[in-house]
Design goal:
By secondary structure, this protein is α/β, with parallel strands linked by helices. It has helices at residues 120-127, 150-157, 175-186, 191-204, 221-232, 251-268, 279-284, 311-314, 320-327, 331-347, 354-359, and strands at 82-91, 94-104, 109-113, 135-140, 143-144, 160-163, 239-243, 271-275, 288-292, 305-309.
């Protein structure tokens, strides 16, 4: 396993046999043991182009002042907790995100959906500044993350928790060591305090002490996902970012993860952003839903955000592209794919050719 420097906390996903994570220098958080642990600011590789990913909705569990942006009599406009402003991201010649604008109030649970390749995960990484925007910026709690020094940026990142698609656990560490990793890297806790925190975090996600000595390979997919969530909670984050948290799970375990997202929001009052394809999650979890669309299938003047509203509204949306995605109706998309295949055959342009990117 790659060497992890002290004061470093970046996780880079590697192969299943030896997952290693990137490094990120970090300031030591204030010690407190009531801790509902927070997020280790783990980092997936920031610059890899893995294109997996307005008005705020009501916030049933947030204090009234966070329920919406607005102006109280005689007061200034409330500053959004997270604000994505004119964000565009391009890798080489391929643009993935274009002119994205989102304001997310504190305490809101936002779900981001869209076809594979539309930039959902890239947007999630941009929010935590693991991917730097080509244009635009991200403001978090009044600070422009784009302009921060490395030291200041890592101090902000510890306020986030990141739940990776496949949990991204260290294969060579036990469950207890995985959950304890951010505490040892960024805290000054005693061994006994760490054991207590690890035990509490595992209990919160429905895992008993019987799993603490197990390695990730000995766990089911659902158990690994829950260990990943426990680790993300280890340092009491204010924002939780979930990247496809239910991928590969059966319907029952999918609902377990959905329930844990809701419980975490309600008990810890975190702001949550969930990237998913799962319509059960869309229906059950969010206050607000945003749908992105692949740029290759949009005209230059069309916005990439096709939908921004409530779960009830998206299931009744009249936009054919939105309704087909929500209902899983593939007829139009299949015809597009067949037409693209025919065009490739007739023009001799292969898949991945820059000319194809421009036309597809």
């Amino acid at each position: 396993m790659a060497r992890v420097a002290a004061r470093s906390l970046t996780y880079r996903l590697a192969s299943a046999s030896d997952r290693t994570y990137g490094e990120v220098a970090h300031a030591r958080p204030q010690r407190r043991l009531t801790l509902r642990p927070s997020s280790q600011s783990m980092h997936q590789m920031a610059n890899e182009p893995d294109f997996d990913h307005t008005t705020p909705g009501d916030l049933p569990t947030a204090p009234p002042e966070h329920a919406q942006q607005g102006t109280a009599p005689g007061s200034e406009v409330e500053r959004p907790f997270l604000h994505v402003e004119n964000l565009s991201v391009q890798f080489g010649r391929q643009q993935v995100l274009r002119n994205i604008n989102l304001s997310i109030p504190k305490g809101q649970t936002l779900v981001i959906i869209g076809e594979s390749g539309c930039g959902k995960t890239v947007l999630l990484k941009s929010i935590i500044a693991l991917v730097k925007p080509t244009v635009g910026c991200v403001h978090f709690d009044g600070k422009n993350l784009t302009n921060l020094s490395d030291q200041d940026l890592t101090q902000q990142r510890i306020r986030f928790g990141y739940v990776f698609q496949q949990a991204a656990l260290f294969d060579s560490l036990t469950v207890a060591q995985n959950v304890a990793f951010p505490l040892r890297q960024h805290g000054s806790y005693t061994d006994e305090e760490i054991r207590e925190i690890v035990r509490d975090r595992l209990e919160e996600v429905g895992l008993s002490e019987a799993v603490v000595a197990k390695k990730p390979a000995e766990l089911s997919g659902g158990m690994r996902k829950r260990v990943g969530l426990a680790r993300a909670l280890a340092m009491n984050p204010e924002v939780l970012l979930y990247d496809e948290p239910t991928t590969g799970l059966d319907p029952i375990m999918t609902d377990v993860i959905n329930q844990l997202i809701l419980r975490t929001r309600d008990h810890k009052h975190v702001t949550s952003i969930v990237v998913t394809h799962n319509m059960q999650t869309v229906e059950k979890v969010p206050d607000r839903v945003v749908m992105l669309y692949p740029l290759a299938r949009l005209d230059d003047d069309e916005p990439q955000i096709l939908f921004d509203g409530t779960p009830d509204e998206i299931f009744n949306c009249k936009d054919r592209r939105v309704s087909q995605f929500v209902r899983g109706e593939a007829q139009d998309r299949l015809m597009e794919l067949l037409a693209t295949s025919h065009r490739r055959k007739s023009t001799g342009v292969g898949e991945g050719d820059p000319r194809e990117v421009a036309n597809d």
